[in-house]
Structure formats: structure tokens, C-alpha cells
Design goal:
This protein folds into 3 domains: 202 residues, GAF domain (Beta-Lactamase, 2-Layer Sandwich); 66 residues, Helix Hairpins (Orthogonal Bundle); 144 residues, Histidine kinase-like ATPase, C-terminal domain (Heat Shock Protein 90), CATH 3.30.565. It is 47% helix and 18% strand.
């Protein structure tokens, strides 16, 4: 007998061990396109869900600018709200995704929420004589506070905000960098915080610290890549602009010294016009690359877009001496994307295919909607093909094998396809031609027009 299970197991039994329930809730973040805040919300949900660890409230403080600042406080604000929330979350059939969505809606409310209470909360770090909660994260130690009013090491202002005498501080530290702190309490049930609760909360603290650290590293990496790309772009633009500007300047000087040879003067003007057109093309391509659609992709019929690319006068003229074979479905599904930009991407690939194909060769435009989820467009040629070494850098900005190419076309095509939620693939063998596959998502049934 063979039994199979999906990767995502969904809900677990309500009477399952807390450890299993905790891991099940946290696992949701690995199956969903959650933001950092959503991932942290999953952790706080695991800590406060009645079937999870079961704390009444969970407060998240983030380390920023040498201070510990209030960010999220999850849980009910009053005993009445607590009873209401627990009733909702214990409804049969409610899964953890619904719980996370419910908690997300709590944070989105304006006024009267716990999070509003702590938004202005801030404690200095890195100073001598720190009080709890800052001291816990500075010393990298879990702190359990009991009867806080009689403990001079506890910050008085914090006690006024949290409104309870007993609470647990879990520092969020990753690679010895302070990320923040989670503070937990049982303000309404008054249940004691057990050693088991502390251990499970500590696991959540490790995962939350890793989430923040990873997100910070990713942001830094993107910034470094952005600055590196800007530097590379600046060098490239300088190189691209220098040649036509020098040419224009040189021939302009000759015109200024004009001594009566009209044929030479006309030739100089033709060169200046050609170089000016080249400059305009460079500026246009850079502007097009930097200005892509920001609104969500919408469903559209790809048929007119594909046919328009084939009927483009530039394509018609350039394809003379080569065969163009087309196979498109009679009826095509609507796909997600931006019609204008998808059309530009197709024309770009067809233009590249013509460049790579010698006279007598063949260029193909093929499309298929047989896949249940994807609409696939293929642009093929019978040209020289692409080496393995070049294929690895094919979509890198400013990489080109053309003598006067800018190396932005394929990068632009990739950005368009990915902004539509699709994927681009390339298959090529030297001497055997190249095939680009654009995979677009089909419109889901029930999607509004």
C-alpha cells in the first residue's frame, strides 16, 4: 500500500502536543508568500494561539538606531475581547492560515488596538544600568519577571504600559547582533508561565531572530547589487555616449571650418545625424528599461499582440531572405501581463532571432495553450547558437555578443516576463540555433474582467 500526502499538511489535531502544533503554525510561513511582518506575525500567532503555546499576548520590539522600539502587540485589549477572540479561534474547521489572517486584520485596524499602545515605546540600548526589557536583550538572556512592581530592575514606564506583574522576555539575537525582543504574558487567564512554555518560546525567539536577520541581509544585498549595477551602468553609459559624442564633435568642427566642399559637408551632416539617432536609441532603451509597469498584471488576449509583432514593418523588411514559420492556436486563453510590454518582448526576441539567422535560415514563432496553467510562446532560430559560457550571462545587463549592441534587450525581456508573473527559458546549441520559451500564467477561472 502506498499513501501520499501534500507538502502542506494544514491543521493538526487540537489535542496534539504543543511542540507539534507550534511547528505546524510556523511552517505556514514556508508555504506562503509572506512578508517579514507576516512571518513575524506567524511566530506571534504560534505563541498566542490557544492550541499553540497559549500565551494571552505577545509584544514585539525591534532593534533600530540603537534603541528597542515597539512594533507589534498581538492579543486582546480587554477580557471581553479575549473571550471573543478565543471563541473565534477555537471554531471547528478554523485553520492556521485563517488565524493568521484574523490576526493580520487586528493589526490593520486604526485606534484601540494593543499595537497602537506601543508604537511610541522606545528604550535605549548600549548603556550602563539598563532596565528590563532592554537589559534582557543587551545581556542575551531570557528573563522571567515575577511581581515586577517590587523589582527595581524593571522599567516603571514599561510596567505601566504592559499592565501586568508577571511576563517573559525573549531576546531576538542572531550572530551576536541584536534584532529585537518578544515579551509574553497571560494578562487574562493568569496562568503561570511554565518551564515548558519558556522552552517553546525560546524556539520561537530563535526563528524570529533568524527571520529579521535574513531579511536585513537580503535588503543589504539588494542595496549592494543596486549600487554595483548603478556603477556598472554609469561606466557603460559613459562608454556608449563617448564615441558618438566624439564623432559629432569632430565633424561639427569640420563644418565650422567649412571651405566650400558641399559633398564633404553633406557627408558630415549625414554622420552627425546617424550618431544623433544612435544617442537617441541609447537613451530610449535605458528609459524603457527603467520604466516598467508597476500596477498588477491584468488578463488579456495574446493573439492580437503576437500577430502585431509579425506584421510590424521593421520585422517584415528584416525577414526578407529568411523563412518565417508561425504556428498559433486558433483560440488562445487569456494570459496575465501587460499587452504593450509583452509585444515589445516578442518583437525583441524576433529581432534577435533574425540577427542570428543567416539568409536561407528559418525563424519560428510558436505558441501553445495545452498546459493547464501556462500559455507558452516560443521564438526559435536556426542560427549560430549560444555557447555555454555566454548562456550563463545572457540576461545580465550590458552583456552582449553584438558589435554595436547595448546588452539590454534580453534583460528587458526577462524583466517583462517576470513582472507578468511568468518565466523565461533558453535552450541553445552552438551551430544548431536557439529557442526562447516564454511561460505566461493563464487567467484563472473567475478572475474579473
Amino acid at each position: 500500500m502506498i499513501e501520499t500526502y501534500g507538502l502542506y499538511l494544514g491543521d493538526v489535531e487540537r489535542d496534539a502536543p504543543k511542540e507539534l502544533v507550534l511547528l505546524s503554525i510556523i511552517a505556514q510561513s514556508y508555504f506562503q508568500p509572506f512578508s517579514l511582518q507576516d512571518n513575524l506575525l506567524v511566530i506571534l500567532t504560534a505563541l498566542t494561539s490557544g492550541s499553540g503555546v497559549g500565551f494571552n499576548r505577545a509584544m514585539l520590539l525591534r532593534a533600530e538606531g540603537g534603541r528597542l522600539k515597539g512594533e507589534i502587540w498581538l492579543g486582546p485589549a480587554t477580557p471581553e475581547e479575549a473571550s471573543s477572540i478565543w471563541e473565534i479561534l477555537s471554531t471547528p474547521g478554523i485553520g492556521y492560515l485563517e488565524i493568521v489572517e484574523h490576526n493580520r486584520s487586528l493589526l490593520s485596524r486604526h485606534g484601540g488596538t494593543l499595537t497602537d499602545t506601543i508604537k511610541g515605546l522606545s528604550f535605549p540600548l548600549g548603556e550602563n544600568g539598563l532596565h528590563i526589557p532592554a537589559r534582557a536583550v543587551e545581556r542575551r538572556e531570557i528573563v522571567m519577571v515575577k511581581d515586577g512592581r517590587n523589582e527595581p530592575e524593571v522599567d516603571r514606564r514599561f510596567l505601566d504600559v504592559i499592565g501586568v506583574e508577571d511576563f517573559l522576555c525573549i531576546p531576538l539575537v542572531m550572530r551576536d547582533e541584536i534584532q529585537g525582543e518578544i515579551i509574553l504574558d497571560n494578562a487574562f487567564t493568569r496562568n503561570p508561565i511554565t518551564e515548558r512554555d519558556i522552552k517553546l518560546a525560546a524556539i520561537c525567539g530563535l526563528i524570529a531572530g533568524n527571520y529579521i536577520y535574513t531579511a536585513t541581509l537580503h535588503k543589504r544585498m539588494l542595496e549592494m547589487e543596486k549600487f554595483a549595477a548603478m556603477g556598472e551602468m554609469a561606466m557603460y553609459i559613459t562608454h556608449q555616449l563617448r564615441n558618438p559624442l566624439v564623432t559629432i564633435g569632430g565633424f561639427t568642427d569640420q563644418l565650422l571650418r567649412f571651405e566650400g566642399d558641399r559633398r564633404k559637408s553633406h557627408r558630415n551632416l549625414e554622420i552627425i545625424r546617424a550618431e544623433t539617432t544612435r544617442l537617441e536609441d541609447i537613451v530610449y532603451k535605458l528609459r524603457r528599461l527603467l520604466k516598467l509597469e508597476q500596477k498588477p498584471p491584468a488578463p488579456f488576449d495574446p493573439g492580437p499582440v503576437l500577430r502585431a509583432a509579425l506584421e510590424d514593418p521593421g520585422f517584415q523588411a528584416k525577414s526578407r531572405g529568411r523563412q518565417v514559420k508561425v504556428r498559433l492556436p486558433k483560440t488562445m486563453p487569456r494570459i496575465m501581463g501587460y499587452p504593450t510590454q509583452v509585444g515589445e518582448a516578442i518583437r525583441n526576441l524576433l529581432d534577435n532571432a533574425l540577427d542570428a539567422t543567416p539568409e536561407g535560415g528559418t525563424v519560428y514563432l510558436l505558441a501553445s495553450g495545452s498546459d493547464p496553467r501556462l500559455f507558452i510562446v516560443k521564438v526559435k532560430d536556426t542560427g549560430r547558437g549560444i555557447s555555454d559560457k555566454d548562456r550563463e550571462r545572457l540576461f545580465t545587463p550590458f552583456f552582449t555578443t553584438k558589435e554595436r549592441g547595448m546588452g539590454l534587450g534580453l534583460h528587458f525581456v526577462k524583466r517583462i516576463v517576470e513582472s507578468c508573473g511568468g518565466e523565461i527559458e533558453v535552450r541553445s546549441r552552438e551551430g544548431k540555433g536557439t529557442e526562447f520559451r516564454l511561460c505566461f500564467k493563464k487567467e484563472e477561472r473567475g478572475t474579473d474582467e
